[in-house]
Amino acid sequence: MDTTALLKSVPTGLWIGGEEREAKSTFNVLDPSSDEVLVAVGDATAEDAVAALDAACAVQAEWAATPARKRGEILRSVFETLTDRADDIAALMTLEMGKVLAESKGEVTYGAEFFRWFAEEAVRIGGRYTPSPAGTGRIIVTKQPVGPCYAITPWNFPLAMGTRKMGPAFAAGCTMIVKPAQETR
Protein backbone atom coordinates (compact mmCIF):
# COMPACT_ATOMS: atom_id res chain seq x y z
CA MET A 1 0.00 0.00 0.00
CA ASP A 2 1.41 3.43 -0.86
CA THR A 3 1.98 5.99 1.90
CA THR A 4 -0.99 8.20 1.00
CA ALA A 5 -3.42 5.28 0.97
CA LEU A 6 -1.89 3.92 4.17
CA LEU A 7 -2.34 7.24 5.99
CA LYS A 8 -5.93 7.54 4.74
CA SER A 9 -6.65 4.10 6.24
CA VAL A 10 -5.72 5.28 9.75
CA PRO A 11 -8.72 5.66 12.09
CA THR A 12 -8.57 9.24 13.37
CA GLY A 13 -11.37 9.27 15.92
CA LEU A 14 -11.67 7.87 19.41
CA TRP A 15 -12.50 4.18 19.81
CA ILE A 16 -15.06 4.00 22.62
CA GLY A 17 -17.64 1.32 23.25
CA GLY A 18 -16.76 -0.69 20.17
CA GLU A 19 -17.13 2.17 17.72
CA GLU A 20 -15.12 5.06 16.36
CA ARG A 21 -16.32 8.44 17.61
CA GLU A 22 -15.39 11.85 16.34
CA ALA A 23 -13.35 13.89 18.80
CA LYS A 24 -14.07 17.52 19.67
CA SER A 25 -10.47 18.42 18.93
CA THR A 26 -7.45 16.87 17.26
CA PHE A 27 -3.69 16.96 17.41
CA ASN A 28 -1.22 16.47 14.58
CA VAL A 29 0.99 13.43 14.20
CA LEU A 30 4.22 14.68 12.64
CA ASP A 31 6.79 13.01 10.45
CA PRO A 32 9.92 13.19 12.64
CA SER A 33 12.18 13.57 9.60
CA SER A 34 10.42 16.64 8.20
CA ASP A 35 7.89 17.88 10.78
CA GLU A 36 5.20 17.51 8.11
CA VAL A 37 1.73 16.60 9.34
CA LEU A 38 1.02 12.94 8.61
CA VAL A 39 -2.50 12.90 10.01
CA ALA A 40 -4.64 14.67 12.61
CA VAL A 41 -6.09 12.33 15.22
CA GLY A 42 -8.65 12.70 17.97
CA ASP A 43 -7.60 14.32 21.24
CA ALA A 44 -9.67 12.84 24.06
CA THR A 45 -11.20 15.05 26.74
CA ALA A 46 -12.01 14.22 30.34
CA GLU A 47 -15.59 13.61 29.20
CA ASP A 48 -14.31 11.12 26.62
CA ALA A 49 -12.37 9.32 29.35
CA VAL A 50 -15.53 9.03 31.45
CA ALA A 51 -17.41 7.75 28.38
CA ALA A 52 -14.68 5.14 27.83
CA LEU A 53 -14.91 4.04 31.47
CA ASP A 54 -18.70 3.87 31.29
CA ALA A 55 -18.50 1.78 28.10
CA ALA A 56 -15.92 -0.59 29.61
CA CYS A 57 -18.00 -1.01 32.77
CA ALA A 58 -21.17 -1.61 30.73
CA VAL A 59 -19.73 -4.72 29.05
CA GLN A 60 -17.44 -5.94 31.84
CA ALA A 61 -19.84 -8.57 33.21
CA GLU A 62 -20.60 -9.91 29.73
CA TRP A 63 -16.90 -10.16 28.80
CA ALA A 64 -16.02 -11.76 32.15
CA ALA A 65 -18.76 -14.36 31.55
CA THR A 66 -17.44 -15.18 28.07
CA PRO A 67 -15.98 -18.70 28.21
CA ALA A 68 -12.20 -18.80 28.38
CA ARG A 69 -12.02 -20.82 25.15
CA LYS A 70 -13.98 -18.11 23.30
CA ARG A 71 -11.78 -15.34 24.75
CA GLY A 72 -8.75 -17.33 23.59
CA GLU A 73 -10.18 -17.67 20.09
CA ILE A 74 -10.78 -13.93 19.90
CA LEU A 75 -7.23 -13.20 21.06
CA ARG A 76 -5.91 -15.67 18.50
CA SER A 77 -7.81 -13.84 15.75
CA VAL A 78 -6.25 -10.55 16.88
CA PHE A 79 -2.81 -12.18 16.66
CA GLU A 80 -3.62 -13.36 13.12
CA THR A 81 -4.89 -9.92 12.08
CA LEU A 82 -1.76 -8.21 13.40
CA THR A 83 0.41 -10.77 11.63
CA ASP A 84 -1.51 -10.41 8.35
CA ARG A 85 -1.24 -6.60 8.48
CA ALA A 86 2.30 -6.48 9.88
CA ASP A 87 3.84 -4.71 6.88
CA ASP A 88 1.27 -1.88 6.93
CA ILE A 89 1.43 -1.49 10.71
CA ALA A 90 5.23 -1.42 10.61
CA ALA A 91 5.22 1.17 7.81
CA LEU A 92 2.87 3.40 9.83
CA MET A 93 5.06 3.01 12.91
CA THR A 94 8.15 4.00 10.94
CA LEU A 95 6.40 7.06 9.47
CA GLU A 96 5.16 8.16 12.88
CA MET A 97 8.24 7.47 14.98
CA GLY A 98 11.17 7.41 12.61
CA LYS A 99 12.10 3.87 13.65
CA VAL A 100 14.03 1.83 11.15
CA LEU A 101 11.52 -0.34 9.25
CA ALA A 102 13.18 -3.57 10.40
CA GLU A 103 12.77 -2.48 14.03
CA SER A 104 9.12 -1.59 13.43
CA LYS A 105 8.51 -5.01 11.87
CA GLY A 106 10.21 -6.60 14.86
CA GLU A 107 7.94 -4.71 17.24
CA VAL A 108 4.82 -5.79 15.35
CA THR A 109 5.92 -9.42 15.49
CA TYR A 110 6.86 -9.13 19.17
CA GLY A 111 3.62 -7.32 20.01
CA ALA A 112 1.44 -9.81 18.13
CA GLU A 113 3.03 -12.68 20.04
CA PHE A 114 1.52 -11.39 23.29
CA PHE A 115 -1.93 -12.03 21.85
CA ARG A 116 -0.94 -15.52 20.72
CA TRP A 117 0.57 -16.34 24.11
CA PHE A 118 -2.41 -15.09 26.09
CA ALA A 119 -4.84 -16.74 23.66
CA GLU A 120 -3.36 -20.03 24.82
CA GLU A 121 -3.13 -18.98 28.46
CA ALA A 122 -6.79 -17.90 28.62
CA VAL A 123 -7.92 -21.52 28.98
CA ARG A 124 -5.35 -22.18 31.72
CA ILE A 125 -6.66 -19.60 34.14
CA GLY A 126 -7.67 -21.61 37.16
CA GLY A 127 -7.33 -21.56 40.88
CA ARG A 128 -5.63 -23.46 43.65
CA TYR A 129 -6.83 -25.71 46.44
CA THR A 130 -4.38 -26.44 49.25
CA PRO A 131 -4.47 -27.45 52.91
CA SER A 132 -3.93 -24.60 55.35
CA PRO A 133 -0.47 -24.45 56.98
CA ALA A 134 -1.97 -25.52 60.34
CA GLY A 135 -3.78 -28.40 58.68
CA THR A 136 -7.11 -27.30 60.10
CA GLY A 137 -8.75 -26.08 56.93
CA ARG A 138 -8.42 -25.57 53.23
CA ILE A 139 -7.28 -22.58 51.22
CA ILE A 140 -9.10 -22.00 47.96
CA VAL A 141 -7.71 -19.45 45.53
CA THR A 142 -10.08 -18.45 42.75
CA LYS A 143 -8.86 -16.25 39.91
CA GLN A 144 -11.46 -13.90 38.52
CA PRO A 145 -11.59 -10.69 36.48
CA VAL A 146 -11.05 -7.52 38.49
CA GLY A 147 -12.96 -5.24 36.13
CA PRO A 148 -11.86 -2.63 33.61
CA CYS A 149 -8.09 -2.26 33.33
CA TYR A 150 -6.27 0.90 32.29
CA ALA A 151 -3.04 1.28 30.35
CA ILE A 152 -0.95 4.19 29.17
CA THR A 153 1.45 3.15 26.45
CA PRO A 154 4.90 4.70 25.92
CA TRP A 155 5.90 6.49 22.74
CA ASN A 156 8.88 4.28 21.96
CA PHE A 157 7.18 0.83 21.90
CA PRO A 158 3.52 1.71 21.40
CA LEU A 159 2.26 -1.55 19.93
CA ALA A 160 4.28 -4.05 21.96
CA MET A 161 3.69 -2.34 25.29
CA GLY A 162 0.00 -2.03 24.50
CA THR A 163 -0.41 -5.68 23.56
CA ARG A 164 1.64 -6.70 26.58
CA LYS A 165 -1.02 -5.08 28.77
CA MET A 166 -4.12 -5.93 26.71
CA GLY A 167 -3.37 -9.62 26.18
CA PRO A 168 -3.45 -10.70 29.84
CA ALA A 169 -6.34 -8.39 30.72
CA PHE A 170 -8.54 -9.69 27.90
CA ALA A 171 -7.53 -13.31 28.60
CA ALA A 172 -8.50 -12.90 32.26
CA GLY A 173 -11.91 -11.49 31.33
CA CYS A 174 -11.24 -7.81 31.93
CA THR A 175 -12.25 -4.97 29.65
CA MET A 176 -9.63 -2.38 28.78
CA ILE A 177 -9.12 1.35 28.37
CA VAL A 178 -5.89 2.32 26.60
CA LYS A 179 -4.45 5.82 26.41
CA PRO A 180 -1.64 5.93 23.84
CA ALA A 181 1.17 8.43 24.11
CA GLN A 182 0.64 11.63 22.15
CA GLU A 183 4.35 12.22 21.73
CA THR A 184 5.77 9.83 19.15
CA ARG A 185 9.38 10.93 18.93
Structural features, described:
One of its GO terms (biological process) is gamma-aminobutyric acid catabolic process. It comes from Mycolicibacterium monacense. The chain is α+β, with helices and mostly antiparallel strands and 185 residues long. 49% of the residues lie in helices and 20% in strands. The protein contains six helices and eight strands, in the order αββββααααβββαβ. A two-stranded antiparallel sheet has the order 1-2. A two-stranded antiparallel sheet has the order 3-4. It has a two-stranded antiparallel sheet with strand order 5-6. The longest helix is centred in the middle third of the chain and has 21 residues, at 101-121.
Biggest sheet, spatial arrangement of strands? 1-2
Mean model confidence by pLDDT: 94
**Net shape:** elongated
Indicate the percent of residues in helices. Answer: 40-55%
The radius of gyration over CA amounts to 19 Å
The biggest beta sheet, please? 2 strands, antiparallel
Distance between the termini: 24 Å
- Going by helix content, strand content and strand pairing, the class is alpha+beta
Number of E strands: 8
